[in-house]
Design brief:
By secondary structure, the protein is an all-alpha fold. It is built from 24 helices and no strands. Helix 1 runs antiparallel to helix 2 (28-48) and helix 6 (105-120) runs parallel beside helix 8 (145-162). The radius of gyration is 23 Å and the shape is globular. 54% of the residues are buried.
Length: 467
């Protein structure tokens, strides 16, 4: 009975993808999640006689828990608009196209995102800032969107996973009862080999692919110079943003200040462009105010004279995040009904009965974490639930808690971005402008990490039992 809501959801999503294609997330997926939620409610009502008030309260709690993520999404929408119109992202693209050769672009993109994410501890911020610039550079060199987004996401999630500043890393270690740096050191045995293998694939692909983007690079550079004021001084904004993050300021505060800095810079450096966006070619503070407000919340089209570049510098602001927020609310509703009816717990207990040895234990933990990403649409809930479910089992069988914490991260943190309706998958696809199913085949690190975790358990490398 507990499998029925998932079967309904899978069938509906499959039909939606076949019918709507890349437009599935614009509404069809949301309806599918609500239908699956209704099925879960019916099963819970008739099989367990649950009152509607209990179900409603759990749904409310789940939706409320994602409020910070929703606010961050709105801020990311605004930062995408302000950093583009102020010339910050165009400047990063302009200089990046000159510095990065096409043959090594993919591997350089992963390494750069890995370094930034490792330092700041946030894959979301890395992708929303450096990632946007790298998307532009990659398109100018002629790479497919999937390859570019895959290399960016690979690097961002590698750094996020190993950074002591990462909230998922801290969460996984704390709920499993493992010291933070012990947890990070133990993850190196699965994370570093997987990342190196991913880099090799990107390196080989860069030389094998016949990208003929040199003409695009020159054309893009001319278009950027013609449309924006390009200056290395504009890079002070991302530098200041990085300093705020390094000092561990709250994410919302950092993003808001980054938007404010970019807005001020845009008004000072790109005043004509801001007034043009407002539809006011004349002088005046009112026109500038109107233009910058539109940049923050609305869709912005900038004519560079180059159709492909126009698509690149197009931004959607906060309004562009609304379909994503809609989907998050529907996904949390589904997760709330599963939790309230006990269907998720029933499935997890069934999985525990299949555990026999080390490999099956690790595989079950990894699989459960990924399953929770699909069912609950949130990596934090996935880490916490998987850890809580298996903690006593690891203890009873004499395994170290750090094996549990690593397995949770290998199954939850890196795979969250691969699920179209998960908060991570939704955010990154929206920010990069690439559908989840398009970049998924190229996120080699994210795909291989769970498999590597199981392989390492099979080999028995550094798997130590407590005495």
């Amino acid at each position: 009975m507990s499998f029925i809501p998932f079967i309904v959801l899978i069938l509906l999503i499959t039909c939606c993808v076949a019918v709507f294609g890349n437009a599935t997330l614009e509404g069809a997926s949301q309806v599918s999640l609500l239908v699956a939620s209704a099925v879960s409610v019916l099963i819970g009502h008739f099989s367990k006689r649950l009152k509607w008030e209990v179900l409603e309260q759990e749904i409310t709690n789940k939706v409320a828990s994602c409020t910070p993520a929703i606010i961050i999404l709105l801020l990311i929408g605004a930062i995408g608009g302000t950093w583009m119109v102020s010339g910050i992202v165009p400047t990063m693209i302009y200089y990046g196209m000159q510095m990065i050769r096409p043959e090594v672009f993919l591997v350089s993109s992963s390494l750069l995102c890995a370094l930034v994410s490792l330092m700041i501890g946030s894959s979301w911020t890395t992708i929303a800032t450096i990632g946007l610039a790298l998307m532009g550079i990659g398109k100018a060199h002629g790479f497919d969107d999937g390859w570019i987004a895959g290399s960016i996401i690979t690097g961002a999630y590698f750094g996020d996973k190993l950074s002591p500043l990462s909230d998922t890393t801290v969460l996984a270690s704390s709920v499993s009862g493992v010291p933070l740096f012990s947890h990070i050191r133990y993850m190196l045995y699965t994370t570093v080999p997987t990342f190196c293998l991913s880099l090799i694939i990107f390196f080989v692909a860069g030389f094998v692919m016949n990208v003929s983007g040199q003409g695009n690079v020159l054309e893009f550079m001319e278009g950027l110079e013609r449309t924006f004021v390009i200056s290395p001084w504009l890079l002070l904004v991302p530098v200041l943003t990085g300093i705020m993050i390094a000092r561990r300021w709250p994410s919302m505060v950092v993003l808001f200040l980054a938007i404010l800095l970019a807005a001020v810079v845009g008004l000072l450096v790109q005043p004509e462009l801001v007034r043009h966006i407002a539809g006011e070619e004349g002088q005046g503070l009112l026109a500038s105010y109107k233009g910058m407000m539109q940049v923050c919340y609305a869709s912005t089209d900038i004519d560079t004279g180059i159709p492909m570049l126009n698509q690149l510098v197009h931004t959607n602001g906060m309004s562009g995040m609304m379909p994503t927020i809609w989907l998050i609310i529907c996904a949390q509703t589904f997760g709330g009904t599963l939790t309230a009816t006990g269907q998720l717990q029933d499935l997890m207990h069934y999985i525990l009965r299949l555990v026999r040895g080390t490999v099956s234990l690790v595989a079950s933990t990894v699989g459960t974490a990924f399953f929770c990403n699909v069912a609950l649409a949130d990596q934090y809930l996935s880490i916490m639930l998987a850890s809580q479910m298996f903690r006593e089992t690891y203890k009873e069988r004499g395994y170290e808690s750090r094996l549990l914490s690593r397995s949770c991260e290998d199954g939850a943190t890196v795979t969250s971005v691969l699920v179209p309706w998960n908060t991570c998958g939704l955010t990154q696809s929206t920010v990069l402008g690439v559908p989840t199913l398009v970049y998924l085949p190229y996120c080699f690190f994210n795909i291989l990490s769970p498999l590597t975790s199981i392989v390492v358990a099979f080999i028995g490398w550094k798997i130590v039992r407590r005495k």
